[in-house]
Design a protein that fits this description.
Elements: H1 15-32, H2 39-46, H3 50-56, H4 60-75, H5 84-99, H6 102-117, H7 119-146, H8 154-170, H9 177-188
Length: 193
C-alpha cells in the first residue's frame, strides 16, 4: 500500500487466521471438490467468521488461489547452479512435487476452470498467481539465455514449460521426474537419459 492509499476498513489480517483459512480451503477442495467448497465450510473448518473471509477475499476462488500461490512460493526454489539443465531440473522437480500433489492439483484445475467462467477472476488469477510462477521460471531462463545456453527464446521456453504443466494437470497425467528430464532435454538441446 502506498502512502497515498487509504487504509482498508476493518481489522488487519491475523497471520494465524489467514493460514487456517488457506489450509481449510485446500483441505476442503481435496475432500469435497471445488463444487463442494463454500465460504461457510472454510469458515467452519478454519474457526473464523465468514465476514472475516469476505473482508479479505472476493470469493472462494480467490481464497483457493492465494492458498495455491502460498504453497508454490514456499516450496519452489529458483536455483542458480550456473547451468541451465541443473537449474531447470531443480525448478521443475520442486514445482512438480508441489503441483502434482492431489490437493493442490485439484485446486489448480478448479482455479483454471473458474478463470474460464469469470473474466474478473481470470485477471486476478493471471496477475496474482500465473504471472508470478512464470516470472520465477523466467529468472532461471534469463540467466541461461545470458550464458548462451537456451536454444530458443525465453518466452517460448516459458510457454513450453507451462503449456506442458497445465496440459498434464488438466488431463490428470503425472508430473514426475521423467517429465522434468524430458523438458530439460528439450529446452537445453541435450538428449534425455
Amino acid at each position: 500500500m502506498s502512502e497515498h492509499e487509504p487504509a482498508r476498513p476493518g481489522r488487519k489480517r491475523s497471520e494465524e487466521s489467514r493460514t487456517a483459512i488457506l489450509r481449510a480451503a485446500l483441505e476442503l477442495t481435496a475432500e469435497l471438490g471445488y463444487a463442494g467448497l463454500t465460504i461457510d465450510g472454510i469458515a467452519a473448518r478454519s474457526g473464523t467468521g465468514k465476514q472475516t473471509i469476505y473482508r479479505w477475499w472476493q470469493s472462494k476462488a480467490d481464497v483457493l488461489f492465494e492458498a495455491a500461490a502460498a504453497k508454490a512460493d514456499l516450496f519452489v526454489p529458483i536455483p542458480d547452479e550456473g547451468d541451465l539443465a541443473t537449474d531447470l531440473r531443480g525448478f521443475l522437480v520442486a514445482s512438480f512435487a508441489v503441483g502434482g500433489r492431489k490437493p493442490l492439483a485439484d485446486a489448480l484445475r478448479a482455479l483454471m476452470a473458474q478463470a474460464q467462467l469469470d473474466e474478473d477472476f481470470r485477471q486476478r488469477f493471471w496477475t496474482t498467481f500465473l504471472h508470478r510462477r512464470r516470472e520465477a521460471l523466467r529468472v532461471v531462463l534469463d540467466r541461461a539465455a545470458a550464458r548462451g545456453e537456451l536454444p530458443t527464446s525465453v518466452a517460448m521456453a516459458t510457454d513450453v514449460v507451462f503449456g506442458v504443466i497445465w496440459y498434464r494437470l488438466l488431463t490428470d497425467r503425472p508430473l514426475d521426474d521423467q517429465l522434468a528430464d524430458e523438458l530439460v532435454a528439450l529446452l537445453s538441446g541435450r538428449t534425455s537419459a
